[in-house]
Amino acid sequence: MSYLALKERPVGDIVASLGLEQPSVSKHLRVLKDVGLVHLRRDGRRILYRTNAEAIRPLHQWTGTFERFWANQLNRIKERAEKKGKEEA
User: Fold this and answer.
1) DSSP secondary-structure letter at 45?
2) Alpha-carbon dihedral of residues 43, 47, 50, 54, nearest 10 degrees?
3) How far is residue 28's CA from residue 23's CA, in Å, rounded to a whole number?
4) Which domain holds residue 12?
5) Residues 40-73: tens digit of each pLDDT
6) How many domains, in total, are found in the chain?
7) How far apart are CA 73 and CA 21, in angstroms?
8) pTM score, two decimals?
9) C or N terminus of the chain, fewer CB within 10 Å?
C-alpha cells in the first residue's frame, strides 16, 4: 500500500515492482478497490491506482492498539532477560 501512497501507478508498474503475475495483482487491486482502500482513475486505456489514505486511517488506528501492546510485551521480555543476565553474572 505504501508503494501506491507515493503516487498513482498503472498495473504494469505494480506487477514489475511486486514480481507477481498480472492476473494476481489485478485480483488484489480489485479487492482493495471494492473495500475502498484504493482509488482508480482512467487515463486513456490505462488504469491508475492510488492508496485511499482516509479509508486506511481506521485500520492504522486499530493496528496501533496491537503495536502498543507488543511494544510493552517486548520491553517486559527485554527487562527479564537483562535481569536474568545480571543474576547469572
Assistant:
1) T
2) 90
3) 9
4) 2-51
5) 999 999 999 999 988 888 887 888 888 878 888 8
6) 1
7) 39
8) 0.63
9) C
| 76 inside domain | no
Q: Residues 37, 83: contact at Cβ < 8 Å?
A: no
Q: What is the pLDDT of residues 6-51, one digit of tens each?
A: 899 999 999 999 999 999 999 999 999 999 999 999 999 999 999 9
Report the C-alpha gap between 38 and 31 in whole angstroms: 9
Rounded Cα gap, residues 1 and 31, in angstroms: 13
CATH number of the domain at 9, please.
1.10.10.10
CA distance 1 to 25: 12
Residue 88 lies in a domain: no
Report yes or no on 18 lying in a domain.
yes
Classify residue 13 by burial, with Cβ atoms within 10 Å: 0-12, 13-18, 19+: middle
